[in-house]
Structure formats: C-alpha cells, structure tokens
Amino acid sequence: MVEQVPEGLRIQLLDAERRPMFPIGGTAPNERARALLQKVIGIAARLPNALAIAGHTDATPFRGQDRSNWELSADRANAVRRIMVEGGIAEGRLSSVTGHADRSLLLPDEPTNPANRRVAITLLRALPESAAP
Q1: What confidence tens digit (pLDDT) does each residue in 59-106 have?
Q2: Cα(59)–Cα(56) distance, rounded to whole angstroms?
C-alpha cells in the first residue's frame, strides 16, 4: 500500500488475502515479503531521501517469554532495516527504526485482523543529514 503522508511517501508491506508477511510471533520476513522489499529497495536506492522504518502488530497479545508486541514490532522493523542495508541502502539514510505494537492499527475496527501486522517504510521529504549541505 503506497500513500502520501505529511512526512513523505509511505510504503506499507502488509498481509493481503490472509497471507502473512511474517510467521506468527516471528521477526524474519517470509520469501514473499523479501521479494517485495527488494522492489522497494530498488526504487529507494535511486532516490536521495532519508528513510523511516516502522513495525506494527495486530492486537493479538504476543505469547513469547519476556516479550510483547512492542518488542515484536521493533524486531520486525529492525529485520527490514538489515535487509535494506544488505540490499544497498546506506545506513546514513536511515532516520528511524521503530516499533509501534498495536498502537496504530491499519484496521482499527478489526484489531486482530492480520492486515494490521505490517511494516511501513517512509521515504521522508527531507534528505538524510549526511547529505544535507
């Protein structure tokens, strides 16, 4: 899902047709998500914009030992960061990597819908500080 937001252009990788981008409770994107990420990397690599990566979960409580949806969403965002850097995006272009748990649901009327489990990559309007004059 691609949309303009005040910060820039947000690209959200989310569950469609009940095909999850991440295994339940897992932090590594599946092959389908990795393929989508490679397309995003290809586009982002040609642009100078800074990037922000945000992980989100649905409202289903995470049942991991000593973990919550906060850690899960942050770990997913960080996994996407690693893939993007491995794909050629310079670390200096990354403005933030954050986890939002279930605090910003895509479908607020359906808090446990798998579509709420997603990662958002925002191409920020501002250039990375390393490229600023």
Answers
A1: 988 776 778 899 999 999 999 999 999 999 999 999 999 999 999 998
A2: 10
* The pLDDT of residue 117: 84
Tokens read off for 15: 């569950």
To the nearest 10°, the Cα dihedral for 116, 7, 39, 56? -20
Residue in the block written with tokens 């993007």 = 84
Q: How far is CA 55 from the centre of its chain?
A: 5
Whose tokens are 């491995």? That residue is 86
Q: 95-128 burial string, b = 16+ CB within 10 Å, else e? A: bebebbbbeebbeeeeeebbbbbbbbbbbbeeeb
Q: Phi, psi at residue 131, to the nearest 5°?
A: -100, -10
The CA distance from 69 to 17, in Å, is: 22
| Look-up of token digits 């981008």 | 21
Which secondary-structure segment (H or E) carries 37?
helix 31-44
**Can you name the residues that pair with 124 across neighbouring β-strands?**
8
Q: Coil, strand, or helix at residue 120?
A: strand
